Inverse folding.
């Protein structure tokens, strides 16, 4: 999954960039791209604190409250792997943008070709660097590493994790001292997982439907939706909306 955030205080420019990225998303359904747009740097930083990281940030440089460079510095303090692409009507900040290891610097208004080229480079880099795996210490001292994309859901019972894979295999851990919330934090921060009960976290990539009481997976398995986690239904709806579904 590729999560993209666009931030620009100029509504017209924001919508233009969003349209170009949406077009890219539609042309690359295999990438499972989600796109969110923000009209202020404050809203973007608040969203990062609330929901976790994005993979790619497309940032206007000249913004009030915190400009794009300051936002980039803030992002870099939390995430050294994120990809930053800057948009601006002035080339004056080009040198500063490299100080936060920006991958791209495009003059506004960008065209579809330039956005596509920048996103292609970003996706290639993400593919090369993507090491997101659920690492599970198994009985006997062996270690299992399940790619996030191959996880249907994760179950927690008797202080053990059980990773249910898309191929039907179940990888079970040894006794865990940490709570399920602590163990699941990296999954939730990834953006494609949602907690639906005290003992289940589901990969929304593999959900086929949801009701007020359960989540149905693409393998036709169903999992109960707890009242305590009723907000998971809206999280899934938001997940679909971010993908234009």
């Amino acid at each position: 999954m590729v999560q993209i955030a666009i931030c620009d205080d100029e509504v017209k420019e924001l919508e233009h960039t969003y349209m170009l990225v949406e077009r890219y998303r539609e042309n690359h359904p295999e990438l499972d791209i989600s796109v969110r747009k923000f009209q202020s740097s404050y809203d973007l930083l608040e969203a990062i604190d609330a929901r976790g990281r994005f993979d790619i940030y497309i940032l206007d440089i000249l913004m009030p409250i915190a400009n794009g460079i300051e936002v980039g510095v803030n992002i870099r303090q939390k995430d050294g792997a994120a990809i930053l692409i800057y948009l601006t009507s002035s080339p004056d900040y080009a040198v500063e943008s490299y100080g936060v290891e920006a991958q791209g610097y495009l003059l506004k208004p960008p065209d579809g070709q330039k956005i596509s080229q920048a996103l292609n480079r970003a996706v290639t880099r993400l593919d090369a660097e993507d090491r997101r795996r659920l690492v599970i210490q198994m009985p006997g001292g062996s270690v299992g590493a399940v790619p996030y994309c191959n996880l249907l859901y994760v179950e927690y019972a008797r202080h053990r994790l059980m990773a249910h894979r898309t191929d039907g295999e179940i990888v079970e851990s040894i006794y865990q001292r940490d709570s399920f919330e602590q163990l699941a934090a990296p999954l939730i921060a990834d953006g494609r997982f949602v907690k639906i009960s005290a003992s289940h976290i589901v990969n929304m990539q593999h959900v086929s439907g949801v009701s007020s009481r359960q989540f149905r997976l693409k393998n036709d398995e169903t999992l109960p939706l707890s009242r305590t986690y009723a907000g998971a239904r809206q999280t899934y709806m938001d997940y679909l909306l971010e993908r234009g579904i």
